[in-house]
Amino acid sequence: MVTGNASNPDQYDRASELKAFDDTKAGVKGLVDAGITELPRIFHQPADKIQKNSVSGDTQFSIPIIDLAEVEKNPITRKEIVDKVGNASRKWGFFQVINHGIPVNVLEEMMDGVRRFYEQDDEVKRQYYTRDFSKPVVYNSNFDLYTGLAVNWRDTFFSFMAPNPPKMEDLPPGHNGGYSKQVQTLGNLLLELLSEALGLKPDHLKEMDCGKGLAIVCHYYPACPQPELALGNSKHADNDFFTVLLQDHIGGLQVLHEDKWINVPPAPGSLVINIGDLLQLISNDAFISVEHRVVANSVGPRVSVACFFSTSITPNSRLYGPIKELLSEENPPKYRETTVADYANYSSGRGLDVDGYKALLHFRL
User: CA neighbours within 13 Å on the CB side: how many for 291?
Assistant: First the structure.
């Protein structure tokens, strides 16, 4: 068990405390269930990580919300939607979509299934606890537990749902893959809109296999006894093509925009879309992958479900570089080619929140 000896630095053995925490296989929720009132030191973020940059509530700094209701029916409306998607992807790297085609009851069932997983008996959950990312379902706390600056106040389970979905019997009870299939349908539509926003044919990004892989990642952020000391998720950019995020009503997601942390408020029935590093790379910086974080909260639990469009660590020799149709003498390539697996391995190997050096810079020409 992790001891809360933050007040006695002379007795702090970080490596031992990390291992003790990991060995419980109960995650952050296990600490909460044990009744801790003082945050163990391994979770203490450096002060500048929490306080750096102000949070803005200005209306001029509000994440775009895009209505997809008529996207397949009305060519004029579709053009307007494409323009909004393009503008949001260039300026923000983030936007929310409503009327996206996934019924509210499906969203709610997915969230309920995540809560049920985390709130079941620890002995049941422990069978999924592992740091072997080749397993069909991986449950643990912090993929970068031993390399990060501080442990994030969250637990996670995830599975690769495409191109090689797990067997039904390997998935936790309540997770039948139905949500991820609907997200893939939405993802294909988004790839069309993003392609058109780049001035390409609608199927261009899909034919590049940008929608071929999908990982579903389910986060659980319990109420934190000292949220002013911790983060739910450190500052980072996603290492995929793009992400579809379902978040509950509690909030806490923030986007770094013009050197300010901007809240992404939950909107009922909406999904958050953000551009990943790989799409910034192949668009040659036309679209931007923006750093974001999740603050810890005292009310929890906060639940979110992120679907990452990427083949990730799946072996694939296909090389991705700036799309040739977007290049010119005035817009030469800014990145060297890479495989998705090489990019994912480099990015993940660094852990979250590497100050001043985004993974993408490593691939810049």
Answer: 20
